[in-house]
Specification:
Elements lengths: L4 H17 L3 H7 L5 E6 L6 H4 L7 E6 L9 H13 L4 E7 L3 H7 L7 H14 L10 H22 L1 H8 L5 E7 L6 E3 L24
Parallel strand pairs: 1-2, 1-3, 3-4
Antiparallel strand pairs: 4-5
Helix pairs in contact: 5-6
The structure holds cobalt (II) ion.
């Protein structure tokens, strides 16, 4: 069995390496964090937020759960978003999915996995609503990958529908929400081009405040 001792050794090496490059790095970080980005990603161990986008500790605020979901009643995720937006005043919220997501795959199969099925049912809901979009998929892998994209788009909308994001827009805070997808096969990120930065882009029924003008 692999020992956890190795992790402490790694940690010392890592901290020494950072200090060698920038002696005041940890001193500065201990005083404050001021990340510009909130990352909402999958818990999958192959999708580490900081590494993928080449950011150091202190530069990105991170929330991860199975299948990168933003559920209206998930106090954990909502609390992260609130802190990131209202206190840290991040400028970008990135929902990042990944192809071949195990959570998405599990949701598309008629199998029991335990408690997590209740969490994954949100993905089934999205799939059920847009089933006809999947008829061109040649196999299960393609269906899963397309569903991974649809899931990101849905979660971006869920972020925009929160009172937190709409309150920020209402007070004129600069805040953009993005949907990205990461490929484990080649390590490359892709922008799904579903970025939102204004309440007018949100369907009327989801707006928390009346808005004039275009929809
Ligand atoms: Co995943």
């Amino acid at each position: 069995m692999a020992s956890t001792k190795k992790l402490f050794e790694n940690n010392i090496e890592w901290a020494e390496k950072i200090k060698a490059e920038d002696p005041l790095f940890f001193q500065r970080l201990a005083q404050q964090q001021s990340p510009e980005y909130l990352w909402i990603g999958c818990s999958d161990s192959r999708v580490p937020a900081n590494e993928i986008v080449g950011l150091l500790p202190g530069e990105i605020f991170v929330h991860r759960n199975v299948a990168n979901m933003v559920i209206h009643t998930d106090l954990n995720c909502l609390s992260v978003i609130q802190y990131a937006v209202a206190v840290l005043r991040v400028k970008h919220i990135i929902v990042c999915g990944h192809y071949g997501c195990g959570g998405v795959a599990a949701a598309l199969r008629p199998e029991r996995h335990g408690l997590i099925d209740n969490w994954l049912r949100h993905i089934k809901d999205i799939y059920f609503r847009s089933q006809e979009e999947f008829t061109a998929c040649v196999d299960e892998a393609e269906r899963i990958d397309l569903m991974c994209e649809y899931n990101v788009v849905e979660q971006v909308a869920n972020v925009c529908h929160t009172t937190i994001v709409q309150d920020a827009w209402k007070r004129g805070q600069e805040l953009m929400v993005h949907g990205w997808i990461y490929s484990i096969r080649d390590g490359v990120l892709r922008d799904l081009e579903v970025s939102f930065d204004a309440p007018e882009q949100v369907p009327e029924v989801y707006r928390q405040y009346p808005t004039a003008g275009r929809r």
